[in-house]
Amino acid sequence: MARYTGPVCRLCRRHGEKLFLKGERCFTPKCSFERRPYPPGQRTARRRKISDRGLQLREKQRARVTYGVLEKQFRRYYKEAIRRPGVSGENLVRLLESRLDNVVYRLGFADSRAQARQLVRHGHIAVNGRKLDIPSAQVKEGDVISFTPRGQRSGYFDIVKETIKSKTVPSWLQLDMANMTGKVIGPPEVVPGQTHLFNENVIIEYYSR
Predict the structure, then answer these.
(1) Could you tell me the domains of the chain?
(2) Which of 23, 35, 101, 196 could anchor a disulfide with 135, C-beta 3.0 to 4.6 Å?
(3) Where are the alpha helices (DSSP H) in the chain?
(4) How does pLDDT run across 77-102, given as a tens digit for each residue?
């Protein structure tokens, strides 16, 4: 499956804010955005006015980068969001939050979504006791996420057991630190500025034109 393989810190600089794509590094002085908080490329004093369409595009790109989704798949999420009953923007966020790699990240099993994606792809994550190596798989209420036997034998598992104590889990997930398992206990919450750093309604407007 195609995916972005370039420097992710460049994406944060392009969007003008931290997107927390590299986990703990984003909170240290090593963060590229802290050292160079300006867009990549040749610097110029000239400022271009961005059109409304350009602002909508920027919001859509920010959402795509945050969840590591390419355009074709993101458009499918949009089509599913408007098909479902309710507010389309909130449906879109819930679809993105329900991705397996995002849930692994939210539970604290990984420091970033990219790392969570790698854990899933390498067969270290199980859903309801069965290995699932598809990062985009949608989890639903009642699903239990855990490490596979292979994942539990890895050195990374021991590191997670020590560091997970400092992680905060959202209210729609339940974490059992003793057994290193997580459970989806409700639909993903949608709180702009907390669960996500983009305006989902602007994205719906972008695709609706």
Answers:
(1) 1-41 (1.10.1050.10), 54-61+68-98+194-209 (1.10.1050.10), 100-184 (3.10.290.10)
(2) 101
(3) 8-15, 32-35, 52-67, 71-83, 88-97, 100-106, 113-121, 149-152, 155-163, 200-208
(4) 999 999 999 999 999 999 999 999 99
